[in-house]
Amino acid sequence: MTMHSSIKGKLIAVIGDEDTCVGFLLGGIGEINKNRQPNFMVVDKNTSVSEIEETFKKFIRRDDIDIILISQNIAEMIRHVIDSHTNPVPAVLEIPSKDHPYDPTKDSILRRARGMFNPEEFR
């Protein structure tokens, strides 16, 4: 009996600017799977929205990725795609970048969570 799938580690994917990706890669999250696909995407001023969307959709379909970290300013560019992803795995976490601070009012997960609770319950 093999327990390969339960032992095999899952990956964190990153979609962000160069500084964000390099920081996470230096932290050790970089991987290239057997199909030579990386688990990160560096977005710059020449990157098209369709490229970002396609990479995000590829990351969602991969069974080796459990968490997708995406810079919030980039998430805003593909908000409709992120909002349509409702499965808990992979989890999509929006993070700040060097030039764009985190804004909780834009975070799709936070908005969804807020909708599940009555604000009166927190008093």
Automatic annotation (TrEMBL):
Signal peptide: none
Family to which this protein belongs: Belongs to the V-ATPase F subunit family.
Entry function: Subunit of the V1 complex of vacuolar(H+)-ATPase (V-ATPase), a multisubunit enzyme composed of a peripheral complex (V1) that hydrolyzes ATP and a membrane integral complex (V0) that translocates protons. V-ATPase is responsible for acidifying and maintaining the pH of intracellular compartments and in some cell types, is targeted to the plasma membrane, where it is responsible for acidifying the extracellular environment.
One Pfam family per UniProt: ATP-synt_F
Subunit structure: V-ATPase is a heteromultimeric enzyme made up of two complexes: the ATP-hydrolytic V1 complex and the proton translocation V0 complex.
Classification via SUPFAM superfamilies: AtpF-like
NCBIfam families in the record: V_ATP_synt_F
Keywords assigned: Hydrogen ion transport, Ion transport, Transport
Protein name (Swiss-Prot/TrEMBL): V-type proton ATPase subunit F
UniProt GO cellular component terms: proton-transporting V-type ATPase, V1 domain
Database matches in Gene3D superfamilies: ATPase, V1 complex, subunit F
PANTHER family named among the record's database cross-references: V-TYPE PROTON ATPASE SUBUNIT F, VACUOLAR ATP SYNTHASE SUBUNIT F
Record-level Gene Ontology MF annotations: proton-transporting ATPase activity, rotational mechanism
Record bears the keyword rRNA-binding: no
Organism: Folsomia candida
